[in-house]
Amino acid sequence: METEIATVSVVADEEFLPFKEDTFDLVVSSLSLHWVNDLPRAFREIHQVLKPDGVFIGAMFGGDTLYELRCSLQLAELEREGGFSPHVSPFTAVSDLGHLLSRAGFNTLTVDTDEIQVNYPGLFEVMEDLQGMGESNCSWNRKPLLHRETILAAAAIYQEMYGNSDGSVPATFQIYYMIGWKFHESQARPAQRGSATVSLGDLAKINGLLSRRKK
Description:
four-stranded mixed sheet
């Protein structure tokens, strides 16, 4: 696809970005950071390559992603094999995300969450779609295979616990959206503690003052 803007394609590791410090005004990451082995380092790398007052905008899968599939597989494996190993890639909790961004040096942070639910005919279709997206389990210590009986049990559990009235099953994708800025002197800063000239308690009197003015 040709554009009027010159572009350069670079194959790189998020944890070892091949760019100089203070290079970019904007860094965008869309649904790839859950594959990073060292997320704190990746955030530090992104912060380093941003110019002062540069902004990072990102989206990544969150901790509740595919919880239906994860729980069904764990229960089936416990029942049939007496233990379980991870079969879904690990995800970051939203409570950790703001802390990680702050530690990397970002300020004026904004973190939001959203959930998208997709319905499938059954567990096998969920797993086939994930494989087609290249989103198979990335855990290095995962079991090399699942026994047929365990998969069939997981499909039954999935349907029993989460199935919809029309026979389909839901798959939840939780997405974290984040924005963080690199510090610059021109950025707005919070006022010093105790410097306020108006009390929050006075806000309750505003409606009364407005009512009297209208009269």
